[in-house]
Amino acid sequence: MDVTVGESIVLPCQVSHDPSIEVVFIWSFNGDVIDLKKGVAHFERIGGESVGDLMIRNIQLNHSGKYLCTVKTTLESLSAVADIIVRGPPGPPEDVRVEHISSTTSQLSWRPGSDNNSPIQIFTVQARTPFSVGWQAVSTVPEILSGKTYNATVVGLSPWVEYEFRVVAGNSIGIGEPSKASELLRTKASVPVVAPTNINGGGGSRSELVITWESIPEELQNGEEFGYIIMLRPVGSTAWTKERVPSVESSRFVYRNESITPLSPFEVKVGVYNNEGEGSLSTVSIVYSGEDEPQLAPRGTSVQSFSASEMEVSWNAIAWNRNTGRVLGYEVLYWTDDSKESIIGKIRVNGNVTTKNITGLKANTIYFASVRAYNTAGTGPSSPPVNVTTKKSPPSQPPANIAWKLTNSKLCLNWEHVKTMENESEVLGYKILYRQNRQSKTHILETNNTSAELLVPFEEDYLIEIRTVSDGGDGSSSEEIRIPKMSSLSSNGIPALEPSIYFLSVVVIFYCFTIQPLTR
Q1: Does the global pTM surpass 0.90?
Q2: Domain assignment of residue 216, given as a range
Q3: For 402-513, where are the alpha helices, taking DSSP H only?
Q4: Strand bridging mode 427-435 / 443-447
Q5: In a domain, 440, yes or no
Q6: DSSP structure string for 414-452
Q7: Is the residue at 517 inside a domain?
Q8: In a structure prediction context, what are the per-residue pLDDT tens digits for the chain, which is 520 residues long?
Q9: Cβ-based neighbours of 396, under 8 Å, separated by 6 or more
Q10: Sign of torsion over alpha carbons 506, 509, 512, 516
Q11: Which of 87, 120, 145 is the last residue in one of the domains?
């Protein structure tokens, strides 16, 4: 029989005999008796008294050989022989060696392992470096057989990188186990060929040109004493300035020269070098030199208070040029002490924005503010301080004694005027907030009076609350009132059941007015 490793087979062994005679089946493998009573791994006797078939489960390579079935009685014995060949993937190649190594190639030799009864059809060379994740197949030239030794040349390697190799064999059955790894060897050094990318920069101080790039990984440095070459010149110039950056890990260089004018464009190239020589240069990038801080303070700064906790600072934009410094945005400073010793806030805005709303302030408090421009070099001078007093706090008492009457689709509301404390802003009017349920959109109606009329289709219950309006902002809201839908009311608008729960005052007087816009 010819089988593949891992399969399960049955070797038949049957005999015809006189039923009165007892027979015994004995199996031998390569001359040694198989003791089936001990439960030997892989072997199992199957069948009845006259059947002595042998089952071999998950057959292995070492099960190749001669199997003998012997049938014995008290009178005689007979036997039959079967030869089994188990074929499997090749064994691991042996004695993998690096015979020669250059900067990009390596010549290997090895001896094949066992073919496991199936001729070896292919060898695959795999390589690994300290930077790779696992083993990877590499390109090779065709294998050359020299006696019982195979040779192959691995190509496409990186210079100055440590490699180790192993070989895997394959046949028609499959791919075998890999060989042991070769000795770890480093390829020869060579001139670096990969140029840096992402050339950028800018910023820095006056008379500086800051240049940045993406550093080259170690596996592409190709040799010792690796570094970077910086080539730069002002736009329009023909002469290049050359600088060397010897640090392997560098990704930034600052060129300083007092003759550099602020925000001047430079052509920049970044290259690489090592002990073997200078390598490639990147393409040209335009990088601007450092700039001066803005020289002018914003004019026309003003501030106004919108509420007890909010003020707005505004100013005129600066028309900048190279002499007065570029403006990237503005910085608003604000504080409460006239001495400006304790700045409590600093907010930046980008571009040409010339107003900034500041919130979270204290009520009835004097705030000072000034504005200054900024760019990559820093901030410029501040504008003269301006100040404003925030509004008094909004009324703390909510509208009280709210009463309502619903007739058809007309809802009349009435409440008491809210009296404010001395440290609170005067009431300018009221806001009525109403919605059909807690999830629906809230509508707002404003009035100067203490009564209002709403024309709404009451197909559902309505939720209503009223709050005060003042210079200091909105005051406290009343408790939420639920107005039942029309179907639950009597014809005159009075609740059909439990009327007392819909009135928030003992004495109720209804007035309906036309709503006037709120003026401030």
Answers
A1: no
A2: 197-288
A3: none
A4: antiparallel
A5: yes
A6: E-PPPPPPTTBPPEEEEEEEEESSTTSPPEEEEESSSEE
A7: no
A8: 999 999 999 999 988 888 888 888 999 999 999 988 776 789 988 877 678 899 999 999 999 999 999 999 888 999 999 999 999 999 999 999 999 999 999 999 999 999 999 999 999 999 999 888 899 999 887 666 777 899 999 999 999 999 999 999 999 999 999 999 999 999 999 999 999 999 999 888 888 999 999 999 998 999 999 999 999 999 999 999 999 999 888 999 999 999 998 889 999 999 999 999 999 999 999 999 998 889 899 999 999 998 888 999 999 999 877 777 889 999 999 999 766 667 888 999 998 899 999 999 988 899 999 999 998 888 999 999 999 999 888 888 889 888 888 877 788 889 888 888 888 888 889 998 888 876 678 888 888 888 888 887 767 788 888 988 988 888 888 888 888 876 555 444 444 433 333 333 333 334 444 444 444 3
A9: 421, 424, 475, 476
A10: negative
A11: 87
Q: Which two tokens stand for residue 383?
A: 């504008």
Measured distance CA(162)–CA(510) in Å, rounded = 95
DSSP annotation of 21: S
What's the token pair of residue 506? 């003992």
Asked if 509 and 414 touch (Cβ cutoff 8 Å), the reply is: yes
Q: Is residue 293 part of a domain?
A: no
Residues 78 and 107 in one domain: no
Looking at the structure, do residues 360 and 381 belong to the same domain, yes or no? yes
Q: How far is CA 16 from CA 27, 68, 71, in A?
A: 18, 18, 11
256: which 2 tokens?
């300083």
